[in-house]
Automatic annotation (TrEMBL):
Cofactor(s) in the UniProt record: Mg(2+)
Lineage of the organism: Bacteria, Pseudomonadati, Pseudomonadota, Alphaproteobacteria, Hyphomicrobiales
Stated family: Belongs to the DNA polymerase type-Y family.
First-level EC class: transferase
UniProt source species: Methylorubrum suomiense
InterPro entries, per the entry: DNA/RNA_pol_sf, DNA_pol_Y-fam_lit_finger_sf, DNA_pol_Y-fam_little_finger, DNA_polymerase-Y, DNApol_IV, IMS_HHH_1, Rev_trsase/Diguanyl_cyclase, UmuC
Name under which the protein is recorded: DNA polymerase IV
Keywords: Cytoplasm, DNA damage, DNA repair, DNA replication, DNA-binding, DNA-directed DNA polymerase, Magnesium, Metal-binding, Mutator protein, Nucleotidyltransferase, Transferase
Pfam families in the cross-refs: IMS, IMS_C, IMS_HHH_1
Site (Substrate discrimination): 13
């Protein structure tokens, strides 16, 4: 039986800001956006007490918490701290699956320090992270990834919780359906309409019923409702996409303005792809409107993008295809996908636009 730890840093971006600027400590803090525009990327626990959450429009967050302090994100600082945390993980196991800068799964079935239990490993990791970075991590320990994630969320912040094999099935039965990994708001609403409120309700449904209602995800729900998750910790996950987006200080529906604001995003995603020696065949454009509705437009090519100029050509074509716009735009984004390692000769010689 495997021993899996899920580490999740508590309010990571906000905690880094409060650590680095003592004047922000113990204050409700939002990272991202501004007092009037944009979206909250992260919120301190002081802000969460007022109902402020990530992905919330900044204006809504300010209404909930008039004293909310907004700070701009500092991604280089977060990446530096994330690397320090990763170094702590590597002292215990090579089997590390990063989920984000602040989150990772670790397989410590065999740990490098020879500690007797996964709980001891998690305790040591949390203490070392705190000592080296001044930041708090929550940890979940269990025998599979699904339950380790559930455990890390169970008593946040500053938590260490263990779900043993004996506890697993009963713990899942009592779990509210919205706390299942992979059940988003739309799926949760659908499940509740079907009378599925808890893990026990989910477990009571047959595999055929779940497949009929949720397609290919039905098998996953059927298994995790029984505390079963055979997914391994993947130490070398392939990157699926490279993206960037920006929220405007003022909405716009002018093509020229949107095209101009797309340029630095194209620079960013192309620079990341170049640094990672990755080639891409699919370009996606994202537009979020003044009413927060959004659309995406994508184009897949038969050969990878040859250079940044070709990326711009495809992206501007997608933008032109989105016109005319019925609403003004508050956010624009772009992403590269269908990624694979670039060839030694620098990649493809010529792009083929055949669809």
């Amino acid at each position: 039986m495997r021993k899996i730890i899920h580490i999740d840093m508590d309010a990571f971006y906000a905690s880094v800001e409060q650590r680095d600027d003592p004047s922000l400590r113990d204050r409700p803090l939002a990272v991202g956006g501004s007092r009037e525009r944009g979206v909250v990327m992260a919120a301190s626990y002081e802000a969460r007490a007022f109902g402020v959450r990530s992905a919330m429009p900044s204006a809504t967050a300010r209404r909930l918490c008039p004293d909310l302090v907004f700070v701009r994100p500092r991604f280089e600082a977060y990446k530096t701290v994330s690397s320090e945390i990763r170094a702590v993980f590597e002292e215990h196991t090579p089997l590390i699956e990063p989920v984000a800068l602040d989150e990772a799964y670790l397989d410590v079935t065999d740990n490098l320090k020879g500690l007797p239990t996964a709980t001891e490993v998690a305790r040591d990791i949390r203490a070392t992270i705190l000592a080296r970075t001044g930041l708090v991590a929550s940890a979940g320990v269990s025998y599979n990834k699904f339950l380790a994630k559930v455990a890390s969320d169970h008593r946040k912040p500053d938590a260490l919780f263990v779900i043993t094999p004996a506890m697993g099935p009963g713990f899942v039965e009592a779990l509210p359906i919205g706390q299942f990994r992979g059940v988003g708001p739309a799926t949760e609403a659908k499940m509740r309409r079907l009378g599925i409120q808890t893990g026990a309700d989910l477990k009571a449904r047959s595999l055929d019923e779940l497949r009929a209602a949720f397609g290919s995800a039905g098998e996953y729900y059927h298994r995790v409702a029984r505390g079963i998750d055979d997914r391994p910790v993947r130490a070398h996950r392939e990157r699926k996409s490279i993206g960037a987006e920006t929220t405007f200080s003022e909405d716009t529906s002018e093509y020229a303005v949107l095209a101009q604001r797309l340029q630095p995003l194209l620079d960013k995603v192309w620079a990341v792809a170049a640094a990672k020696a990755l080639a891409a065949r699919t370009v996606t454009l994202k537009l979020k409107f003044s009413d927060f509705a959004q659309i995406t437009r994508a184009r897949s090519l038969t050969l990878p993008l040859a250079d940044r100029a070709m990326l711009e050509q495809v992206s501007l074509g997608l933008l032109r295809d989105a016109f005319p716009l019925r609403r003004s735009v508050r956010l624009i984004g772009t992403a590269l996908s269908s990624l694979h390692p670039r060839s030694d000769d620098g990649g493809p010689r010529q792009l083929d636009f055949a669809m």
